[in-house]
Specification:
alpha/beta; single chain; 6-stranded mixed beta sheet; about 475 residues; 15 helices; TIM Barrel; Rossmann fold; globular
Length: about 475
């Protein structure tokens, strides 16, 4: 048996020209496909064409495009995270005006059109996790919301649009990664809810996605005793696969989350791969070394579920993306998503103080500072990065204080740093305005007269939008 047909391997887009012989070698061995990380749009597009021409069967070309093609490829459009999109589109009762529904569908259509233009035929989205735990370090703004109803609505809209434009949608991370305080990239999280509770909450978006015709579902690296009391991660569990097939009636392709993650628990990648295929999973995603995994499987009696996982090419119209228009759409929905808690009014003093807190390595807040500086010419800015002490007593007096918090949701990060949380606590009684350019939960518990602004992500467009909101008062 050729075990390469059950593997999607990593493809680094920035190395696609330099490493093309390696990727072509995997294609000739029968690899199922690739997951694309990074690179320039046209270079990756040409590389994908070369790989597809060499393949006997159509390759699965996948990518994590929860926020659009620009999330991975330079030249593509990047949109706000799912939570921001949901806030822009719905009201508190999940009522959606027709005009906003059109905008939502235009966003999803744009993602699909650009992906197909690049040669990508599978998108690992929608995220069907319900973010019910404010301390969740890896889902957070990637979720459409905190209720099964909201996540189901937006998830199903995404699935229908993607698949109508020739993209295979993949719902993740079954049975739901929202109620955890552990990043499954680092170690195995545990979901302690019973099956009745899971069915009402976490499982509901997946059940609705199956009804909507989703073609692929990704198993999370999660310990869910309600599905498998043995403690084996769902991604390796025959009982979990059986539940998805027999209880939810899913007939499509089941894929694991990345096999290089710490969430596979105590098992090696090779052992986990063997268990996964024996459990009835169709595709192994992103093992570190596909050749090593195949060599291991060839020495074992793996029982594989053979099915056509390469998806027939759908006869949908191929569109040429209008990247300028797509950028305007992204800026529009970014502005629509900005949420203000409290009554924003003009700052009292002509020389406010902007304090930027960031636990990320990149320099953050430059666009915000530039935007505010255009109106407040005497604006003073202090930038504090991970681990730096706040020394502010000499500069706070006589100034209105704006605190901007930058903390991205990133794999293997483990959530916001203790340093950042401590800084927020120290400043909560000293600031007039708090802004979160990331998780809303970082500033949610700040009380009193503090104005809270939620931007949900840290793009230049989000920073410009927030600066405009503050300037208008």
């Amino acid at each position: 048996m050729n075990f390469y047909q059950f593997i999607i391997s990593r493809l680094n887009g920035r190395d696609i020209e330099k490493e093309v012989d390696y990727y072509l070698g995997l294609v000739r061995k029968g690899i199922a496909g690739f997951i694309i990380f990074g690179g320039e749009l046209n270079t990756v597009k040409q590389g994908i064409k070369k790989l597809q021409r060499e393949a006997d069967n159509r390759l699965i070309i996948a990518s994590d495009l929860e926020r659009g093609l620009g999330q991975q490829l330079e030249g593509g459009t990047i949109f706000p995270p799912a939570m921001a999109i949901a806030k822009a589109i719905k009201n508190s009762k999940l009522k959606v005006q027709n005009s906003k529904l059109k905008i939502l569908r235009d966003v999803f259509k744009t993602v699909a059109i650009e992906a197909r233009y690049a040669g990508i035929n599978t998108i690992f989205a929608p995220v069907l996790d319900i973010n019910t735990n404010p301390k969740n370090p890896i889902i957070s703004t990637r979720a459409f919301g905190e209720s099964a109803e909201s996540v189901s609505f937006f998830g199903c809209e995404m699935i229908k649009i993607f698949q109508s434009y020739g993209i295979t949608a993949c719902g993740k991370h079954f049975p739901g990664h929202g109620d955890t305080e552990t990043d499954s990239h680092i170690k195995l999280p545990k979901i302690k809810k019973d099956i009745k509770t899971l069915s009402k909450t976490e499982l509901a978006p997946f059940r609705n996605a199956v009804k909507a015709g989703v073609r692929m579902i990704m198993l999370g690296h999660l310990n869910v005793p309600a599905l498998d009391p043995s403690g084996v991660p769902v991604s390796l569990s025959q009982k979990a696969v059986s539940y998805l097939r027999n209880k939810l009636g899913f007939k499509g392709v089941i894929i694991t989350d990345a096999m290089n993650m710490g969430g596979i628990g105590k098992y090696s990648e090779e052992e986990a791969s063997f268990m996964t295929l024996n459990a009835g999973v169709d595709i192994l995603l992103h093992p570190t070394d596909p050749d090593r995994v195949v060599a291991y499987l060839e020495g074992k009696d793996a029982r594989c579920r053979i099915q056509d996982t390469r998806f027939k090419r759908t006869k949908t119209r191929q569109f040429i993306p209008d990247f300028s228009e797509h950028k305007r759409l992204a800026e529009k929905i970014t502005k629509m998503a900005i949420k203000i808690d409290g009554r924003l009014k003009p700052l009292h003093f002509f020389a406010p103080l902007l304090i930027i807190l960031s636990d990320d390595a990149d320099k953050k807040g430059i666009t915000l500072y530039t935007g505010l500086k255009s109106g407040y010419h005497s604006l003073k800015c202090l930038h504090f990065k991970q681990g730096e002490d706040l020394k502010l007593d000499s500069v706070l007096k006589g100034r209105d204080v704006i605190v901007a918090v930058f903390s991205c949701i990133r794999a293997w990060k483990g959530g916001a740093s203790p340093w950042l949380l401590k800084c927020i606590t120290e400043l909560k009684d000293k600031a007039e305005i708090f802004i979160s350019f990331g998780s809303p939960y970082l500033i949610d518990n700040i009380r009193g007269d503090v104005i809270k602004i939620y931007a949900y992500w840290d793009s230049d467009s989000a920073q410009k939008a927030v600066a405009e909101v503050i300037m208008k008062g």
